[in-house]
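Look over both lines:
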Amino acid sequence: MEAWDAFQAEGLTVDFVTPEGNAAPINVTEAGEFRSRLYDADLMYALGHTYTPSQIDPARYRAVYFVGGSNAIYGVPENTQLQNIAMHVYERNGGVVSAVCHGTAGLVNLKLSDGKYLIGGKRVSGYPEEFERQDAAYFKEFPFLIRKTVEARGGTFLTSARDKGYVVVDGRLVTGQNYLSAKQVAEAVVDLLRKSADQQAR
């Protein structure tokens, strides 16, 4: 929720979107510090009532943030409506596209209007397969591997120590290696939005 905090502190409105508009899953057993958020009525309502992609008018948005968690590798990368939203924000609105941890999976199929991959020729981070428990059942179910796919799309995949936050900013593309990078990614997005607003005000 560090990203939520960073966006809220900047006075930005945050809308949650999921492929089916379902309630976003919340796991409080592994992150005790999140339990106090259960009493944040606005946040809990937003997470419990996410938008479907068809409910989103991309012209209204300045940034897209693909959250992490291994579920992000399912249902998100192949969703063409989500792809269209992200690319509208990036190309037509001059906005920012960002992702953290497994959320980078949401970037791998994004294409520019010229047909080239957004991540082609860009520096990208995310949660690589070498950090996964490759002997675990969940890993064997993955439809693709993040590092391998980013590199196949022409991106340069960068990581740091697995227990450290790490963020890569390449133009208006911001990516983070793991959940420890969530706040840093959000802050980098905010910084880019500020600079864009300053340029437009001149």
